[in-house]
Design a protein that fits this description.
Helices cover 19% and strands 13% of the residues. By secondary structure, it is an alpha/beta fold. It has a single domain, classed as 3-Layer(aba) Sandwich (Rossmann fold). Strand 5, helix 7 (226-236) and strand 6 (246-250) form a beta-alpha-beta unit. It is globular. The structure holds calcium ion (3 copies).
C-alpha cells in the first residue's frame, strides 16, 4: 500500500499507527472499531472514480471495513497471506467485475486444460471458478431474469474479497486472505428461486472436495431433508470429517419467526452472522438463532459490487453481514499466525477462544437470545506492536453530527 497518496487526497485523512491500537488498548478513547453513522456514508464522490485507490474506502464510505478492523486482516507486505477459499452459495456472480476478476478461486487444472474436457476428472467440465448447479454449466454468471436485476451473488462475493489497492471501487476484509468460489444454487425464474436440497448437496460436495474451507450462505431456507441434514452434519459437525469446513450462516432480519437453515442447525462449525445496524444495535426483526458462535457484523449502508464492469451499489441487509464475516474470518485464518490451523483448531482457538470473548458487544437486543447483546466481530486480535493498521477516513469536518 502506498501511504504517500493518502496524504494527498483532499477527501481523506490518513490516520496511521495509533488509531488502530493494539488489542490491550481497545477500550481507550478513539477505539478503532467505532462506526460512523449511516448518514455519512453516501459517496462523497463517484465510487468508480479511477483517480483514487479503492476510492470508496478512501472517501470514508467503507465504514463496515473499519467496523470489523478489516485492514488488520490484510496481509503484511513481507508476509503474504495463504488465501482461504470461500465458497459463495448464491445466484451466481459477474466474475468479470473489476473488483472481482482477480479475486476468484481458480481450478488450475481446468484453467490450463482443454476446453470441453474435464481436465481434473472431478465430474465437471471446464469448472474454472466454480459451477452453476441450476443450469449445470461452468458459466457462473447470473442467468434469466437475474441478468436484469441486482446480482446478489456479485455483491456478496465483493464483500468477501473485493480487490484491494487496485485504484477502483471497494476493499474488503478478505481482499488478501480470501478467494471466492462461485456456486450458483438458485436462479430467478419461477421454480429456480427455491433452494433445491439435492442441488445443494451436490454444491456442498463440490465445494468441500475442491478445497473450500469457508462456506458462505447469505441464502436461508425453512425446509430441509434428512439427506441435506446429513450433508451439513458431515461438513459442520462430525469430528475428524475429511470434508470439515466452517459454515458462515445468515440470520435474517425481516421478522421471520425462525432463523432458517443453515443457521438453525445446532452444529459446532456453524458461525452465525448477527446483523448490526447503526450504533451497535442488532437489526430490528432479527430472527432468533441457536446459542453458539454468533458474531455481530455490519448489515446497513454497505457498498458492494454491482453490474460489470464497474458499477457499485449501496445495500442493506443480513446478507451483507454474512459475506463480511466470511471474508473477515478468511482474512484472519490466512494470516501466518493461523494459516496452519484446521477448521476445528481455528474455531476453538480463534473464533471461540478469542473473537467470541471480545469486550466489544452490541447493544442488548429486544428478545432472546439477544438480550445481553452479541460479541462484535473484528480482527483486532491480529493487532500487534509490529504492525498497526492503515485506515483512511473523511476529516471530521466532512462528517455530519451523530444523532
Ligand atoms: Ca473439472
Ligand atoms: Ca477443461
Ligand atoms: Ca478495489
Amino acid at each position: 500500500m502506498e501511504l504517500g497518496g493518502y496524504y494527498k487526497s483532499r477527501l481523506c485523512l490518513a490516520l496511521l499507527s495509533g488509531w488502530l491500537a493494539p488489542a490491550a488498548a481497545q477500550q481507550a478513547p478513539g477505539f478503532p472499531c467505532q462506526p460512523v453513522t449511516c448518514s455519512t456514508l453516501l459517496p462523497a464522490t463517484s465510487v468508480a472514480d479511477p483517480g483514487t485507490n479503492d476510492c470508496a474506502y478512501r472517501a470514508g464510505n467503507l465504514w463496515w471495513v473499519d467496523y470489523v478492523a478489516g485492514s488488520l486482516a490484510w496481509s503484511a507486505r513481507d508476509k503474504p497471506a495463504r488465501p482461504v477459499t470461500v465458497a459463495v452459495f448464491d445466484d451466481g456472480a459477474w466474475i468479470d467485475h473489476e473488483d472481482l476478476r482477480n479475486q476468484l478461486w481458480t481450478n488450475e487444472a481446468e484453467a490450463h486444460g482443454k476446453e470441453g474436457v474435464d481436465d481434473d476428472g472431478n465430474g465437471y467440465v471446464d469448472d474454472v471458478h466454480g459451477w452453476d448447479f441450476v443450469d449445470n454449466s461452468p458459466d457462473v454468471a447470473p442467468k434469466g431474469a437475474c441478468r436484469e436485476r441486482v446480482s446478489h451473488g456479485t455483491l456478496m462475493a465483493s464483500l468477501v474479497a473485493a480487490e484491494r489497492n487496485n485504484h477502483v471501487g471497494i476493499a474488503a476484509p478478505g481482499s488478501d486472505g480470501a478467494r471466492v468460489m462461485i456456486l450458483r444454487i438458485v436462479g430467478c425464474d419461477a421454480d429456480a428461486t427455491r433452494v433445491d436440497p439435492a442441488r445443494l448437496i451436490r454444491a456442498l460436495e463440490y465445494a468441500t472436495h475442491m478445497g473450500a474451507r469457508i462456506l458462505s450462505f447469505s441464502a436461508h431456507w425453512s425446509v430441509t431433508t434428512p439427506e441435506l441434514d446429513a450433508a451439513f452434519r458431515e461438513i459442520a459437525d462430525r469430528p475428524d470429517s475429511p470434508v470439515a469446513a466452517i459454515v458462515v450462516a445468515s440470520v435474517p432480519n425481516k421478522g421471520e419467526p425462525a432463523a432458517g437453515y443453515p443457521a438453525a442447525y445446532d452444529f459446532r462449525r456453524i458461525v452465525r452472522a448477527i446483523p448490526i445496524g447503526n450504533d451497535d444495535e442488532i437489526s430490528p426483526g432479527t430472527s432468533p438463532a441457536p446459542a453458539g458462535l454468533n458474531l455481530g457484523a455490519p448489515s446497513a449502508c454497505v457498498i458492494g459490487a454491482g453490474r460489470p464492469p464497474a458499477q457499485y451499489r449501496l445495500e442493506q441487509g443480513s446478507s451483507n453481514s454474512t459475506a463480511i464475516l466470511a471474508g473477515l474470518l478468511a482474512g484472519i485464518w490466512s494470516s501466518p499466525r493461523y494459516d496452519k490451523l484446521s477448521p476445528d483448531e481455528f474455531l476453538a482457538g480463534v473464533v471461540e477462544g478469542r473473537m467470541s470473548k471480545t469486550a466489544r458487544h452490541s447493544k442488548p437486543g429486544s428478545r432472546p437470545p439477544y438480550l445481553e447483546g452479541v460479541p462484535l466481530a473484528d480482527a483486532c486480535l491480529l493487532a500487534t506492536e509490529r504492525r498497526s493498521a492503515s485506515v483512511c477516513r473523511q476529516p471530521e469536518a466532512h462528517r455530519e453530527a451523530r444523532p
